[in-house]
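Running this now, will post back.
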Amino acid sequence: MTIADKLVLQKQHHLKWQAFDRLELVLMIICGILCFGFSLSVTCDIVTRTIGHPWLWLQEVTSTLFIYAIFIGAAVATRRNDHLYLTAISDALHGTPRLIVEIVIRLVVLGVACCLIWFGYINFLRGFGSFRLPSGTPIASLYAAIPFAGLLIALFTIEQLVNGIKNGFDHPEPLDEDLPGSPLDTGLKTRVGL
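Update: finished.
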């Protein structure tokens, strides 16, 4: 099993275009790097302050990694239906009521994405007037994550809307043991006697 098979979620794959699987993989790797970098920078900040020689620039690095991890993670979670998605209501329904609820939910998410794009872009432009200390970097470097995430969320929401209307939202998911690489994969089932 490749790393792509482990990072690209196969759940609700009928709502996804295969062309975006590579984008999901890249975004998942970026999120992992950002989270690792955030943890490392926090640790270094604590250690340098404890020994009495703080690196003041670490706070800028930490906040940048944290903000980008949040917004890129929200975009990836949207594609994986792990975020901004109300499953309790829609999973209880079938047929036309489910179709209506799924479309309404995704239209709300699309509206949120449009707000992220529009207001995030406005904040990005205004951020060139404020600077971060001690580096003097425009704060717009932080705000750039907001419209970028909004674009990705909108893209993934449109992907789900188109495929959901075309293929239907109500598809039975394969059991975990049927997925490749799961602990109860067929090769292991044979050895265990299942």
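The longest helix spans residues 96-126. More later if anyone needs it.
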